[in-house]
Structures are given as C-alpha cells and as structure tokens.
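User: Last request for today: this protein with FE2/S2 (inorganic) cluster, please.
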Amino acid sequence: MEIKLTINGDSKKFEVDPSTRLIDLLRSAGYQGVKKGCDEGHCGSCTVLLDGQPILSCIKFAAQADGAEITTIEGMGTVNDPHPLQQSFVDKGAVQCGFCIPGMILSSKSLLETHPDPTEDEIKRGLDGNYCRCTGYVKQIEAVQSAAQKMRGGI
Ligand code: FES
Ligand code: FES
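Assistant: Here's the final one, the structure of the complex with FE2/S2 (inorganic) cluster:
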C-alpha cells in the first residue's frame, strides 16, 4: 500500500507492507536518529512526534501514520545550528552515550509546547516514558529547565 508522510517538513510517499512498523520505515529511509532500544514499547528510544505528540515508533504501524506529520531528531537542529534543547542537553552534561537522547529531546519539545515554564514534576511526567541507562536523569531535568528559559527569552 502507498502512504504519505510529511517528515521534518518534507512530503514523502512510501510503498509499505501493512505490517511495516514506523520505526523500520523511518530508519530504512535514513532517519537513523530514531533509535531502536527495547523494540517492544518500553524504553522510549524510538520516540518521534506524530502531529506534535510523542509516540513510540516501534509499536506503531507505518500505515497508521498515513497522512501525518512526523518529526525526528534530524528535524530539530544541526551541529552548527542546534535547537535550544539540544544545546542545553550538551551544556548541562545531560548526554553520555546519547542513545536515549533523541527520544528525550522530542518528548521535551512536545512538553515545552504546552508547558513553556514547566515545574520539575511536569518535566518528570513529560519524560517518564524515556529511559536513560547512563545519566540518572537530574542533568536532563536541568537541561529542559535551561532550554525552557532560553525559549522564553529569559537568557
Ligand atoms: S525501542 Fe520503542 S520503546 Fe524501546
Ligand atoms: S545517555 Fe546513555 S542511555 Fe541516556
């Protein structure tokens, strides 16, 4: 079957099998920032935004996303022009191996759109589906707070 997706602002068509998962479609199309961790809906590494909402692409069929706008980490920023969230994660030392970070940043982006000045508890709730095996989470909460302040024009 043919499906249409808008990925990071680019309109694309794909021929997919009904059983093709969104994670596999995206990774095979070159969006390798969509990380495959547990591969069964537990860790959050595969998080992408579907029409602005974080979803787990390993438990979503590509066909279910037909017509949607998808945002992956490749759509957030570049090395030379990072999104404030990406810069804050680096500045606060919130990145170690980095495997969880694309999903964390996308979940954080979604959170900040509805909570531009989030409390610590709101950040914890916003990131509670994104597991990190390295950092202990404190620095990531600080990174989201710092990015939120920058995005509000506070610094
Ligand atoms: S890879 Fe999808 S939730 Fe772990
Ligand atoms: S930085 Fe390694 S899993 Fe989060």
